[in-house]
Write a structure and sequence with these properties.
The protein is built from 5 helices and 8 strands, in the order E-E-E-H-E-E-E-E-E-H-H-H-H. The chain is an alpha+beta fold and 172 residues long. The protein has one domain. A hairpin with a 2-residue loop joins strand 6 and strand 7 (102-104). The termini are far apart.
C-alpha cells in the first residue's frame, strides 16, 4: 500500500449528530451524537500505511439502558452488513439505488464496501483535508470549540437553505 500522505494522523472519526426543527421552524443541531464512523490507520514498522481498519458505532437506546457503562453504542466491524448509500451524504436506511431502470432495490454490502463507495479503494480519500494536501506538506486544522457547535450550526443553516426544506415549510 502507498505511503500515508497524512503521516501524523492515526485515524479519523466522523460524528453524526441529529438535527431538529425548533418552534420557529428553524433547523438547529442537537448535542446528541447518534453515529460515529471510524477509520484507523495501521502502519508498519517503518511508519508507512499498511492498512485501514473501518468500524462504526451507533447509539442504541436499548444498549444504553441495558449496559450504561458501554455508553449505549453498538459496534459494527468492517464486515458488518449495511445498506449502500444512494449518494455520498446519504445516511438514510435502505436507500433505493439509481440504475438504468430508474430506482432499484436497496443493495446490502459490507461496512467497508460502503465506505469505499465514497472514499475509494482502500478507503484512503480524506475529504476534509483533500484540498490542502497538494499545497501543504501536512494538513492544517482549525480546532473548533465543541460548546459553540460551530459545524453543527453551519450544517443546520445549509439544510435550512435547501429547496426540499423550503418546500416542507410551505406545507405548514
Amino acid at each position: 500500500m502507498e505511503d500515508n500522505p497524512y503521516g501524523s494522523l492515526d485515524g479519523l472519526l466522523l460524528l453524526i449528530q441529529d438535527m431538529l426543527i425548533d418552534t420557529n421552524g428553524r433547523v438547529v443541531p442537537t448535542h446528541l451524537t447518534r453515529d460515529i464512523q471510524a477509520r484507523m490507520f495501521i502502519k508498519n514498522d517503518r511508519g508507512l500505511l499498511d492498512r485501514i481498519v473501518v468500524s462504526e458505532y451507533e447509539l442504541s437506546r436499548r444498549s444504553l439502558l441495558s449496559s450504561p457503562t458501554r455508553g449505549g453504542f453498538l459496534e459494527f466491524s468492517e464486515k458488518a452488513p449495511v445498506y449502500f448509500p444512494a449518494s455520498g451524504n446519504d445516511y438514510f436506511f435502505a436507500s433505493p439505488q439509481f440504475t438504468r431502470r430508474g430506482l432499484d432495490f436497496p443493495l446490502l454490502v459490507t461496512l467497508r464496501r460502503r465506505c469505499e463507495g465514497c472514499h475509494g479503494p482502500g478507503v484512503t480519500a480524506i475529504f476534509s483535508v483533500g484540498t490542502t494536501i497538494a499545497v501543504l506538506n501536512q494538513p492544517s486544522f482549525t480546532i473548533l470549540d465543541p460548546r459553540a457547535n460551530v459545524h453543527g450550526f453551519y450544517v443546520a443553516r445549509s439544510k435550512q437553505e435547501r429547496d426540499d426544506f423550503k418546500a416542507l415549510q410551505q406545507q405548514k
